[in-house]
Amino acid sequence: xxxxxxxxxxxxxxxxxxxxxxxxxxxxxxxxxxxxxxxxxxxxxxxxxxxxxxxxxxxxxxxxxxxxxxxxxxxxxxxxxxxxxxxxxxxxxxxxxxxxxxx
Length: 103
Prior knowledge:
Elements: E1 16-20, E2 23-26, E3 32-34, E4 45-47, E5 52-55, E6 60-63, E7 67-69, E8 74-77, E9 80-83, H1 89-94, H2 96-101
Parallel strand pairs: 4-7, 5-8, 6-9
Antiparallel strand pairs: 1-2, 2-3
């Protein structure tokens, strides 16, 4: 979710924290909002918890519109993977995966 596009109607801040799937909280005045994203912004591929998905070495996968991999899913991309929309760079940098990869 791109939080930069939101502005708190109470204090004017653009600094938010994601609370859940459809709630954000202003980091300045603590006002909580429910937000919904347009259908076009939602991932087209969702791999659910408990799934075991392996894309083999000769696979050539293109995902248009994004992919969401739920916690608890085992997904391996051994071949070529093209993602057509990069996610939020700040959220990627702050992700646990990125921190583990760079330590």
